[in-house]
Design brief:
about 260 residues; about 25% helix; alpha+beta; four-stranded antiparallel sheet; 6 helices; single chain
């Protein structure tokens, strides 16, 4: 008895051949299916993003990606090249796998600079994560050592002048706060801060209404919430958040 008996089916018309079984997901070209049964690429610390607006300048793009993705966990690296081959694409590397997974699920299709982001796990580990895991190959290590040796040869370290002392780091001064208010006052913002960047940070909190920038003053802004309680939650969560490496955002309640 044969192990497999082919079933005969009636010939289908062109229109009926296009029908999809109602229980099966329709996978459109270039889409990413996030269901439990279909996973083309294994989970990774690094996520790959495409369909990014390629008119955004690289520096602004890097800052906006950091501001958006760092709310899910520690971001250890971002790669966004402006070459013809890599335009509209970026890689974001997280320290924790759970953070990359959460970011992928939460931000899939997020309207980033008016274009929905398409996100999937990267196919291979980034250099940073490979070093942590101990899978960084000897060949790559030798290349890196050679590169560093060439850099040192071309740029020898300068000796400090006699009698100079190391700079003394002073502790950060706590800014006195005002009574609770539904409007927050932000200061110590970097020059490159824009409305979208701040909106992406604050709209994850319930009650968020709007961001207001102050014309001619790049380092301050106001963020409005529906209640002072909701404003307080966002203030506590984002106090000291670094939009760039050198600028820790300071948040207080706005004066009434």
């Amino acid at each position: 008895m044969p192990s497999h008996i082919p079933l005969r089916s009636a010939p289908s018309s062109p229109s009926s051949s296009r029908r999809q079984h109602p229980a099966l997901p329709v996978l459109h070209e270039r889409s990413v299916w996030k269901g439990d049964s279909i996973m083309d690429i294994r989970p990774n610390h690094t996520i790959y993003i495409n369909n990014i607006n390629d008119k955004v300048k690289k520096e602004e793009l890097m800052r906006s990606l950091y501001a958006l993705f760092s709310q899910f966990g520690q971001v250890v690296d971002i790669v966004a090249l402006k070459t013809m081959k890599m335009r509209g694409q970026a890689f974001v590397v997280f320290k924790e796998l759970a953070a990359s997974t959460n970011a992928l699920r939460q931000l899939q299709g997020f309207p980033f600079y008016n274009k929905p982001m398409r996100i999937q796990y990267a196919k291979t580990d980034s250099e940073v994560i490979a070093k942590v895991k101990g899978t960084y190959s000897d060949k790559e290590k030798k290349k890196e050592k050679k590169k560093k040796a060439l850099e040192l040869a071309s740029n020898p370290p300068k000796k400090p002048a006699v009698g100079t002392n190391a700079p003394v780091l002073t502790p950060a001064v706590q800014v006195p706060d005002n009574p609770p208010n539904y409007i927050l006052f932000l200061n110590n913002l970097p020059e490159e801060t824009n409305e979208m960047m701040l909106s992406m940070l604050f709209n994850q909190f319930p009650g968020f209404k709007e961001v207001r920038l102050v014309p001619g003053k790049h380092d301050i802004a106001f963020v409005e919430f529906e209640s002072d309680t909701q404003a307080g939650v966002a203030k506590d969560a984002l106090q000291g958040f670094r939009i760039t490496a050198t600028c820790a955002m300071k948040i207080t309640y706005a004066k009434k």
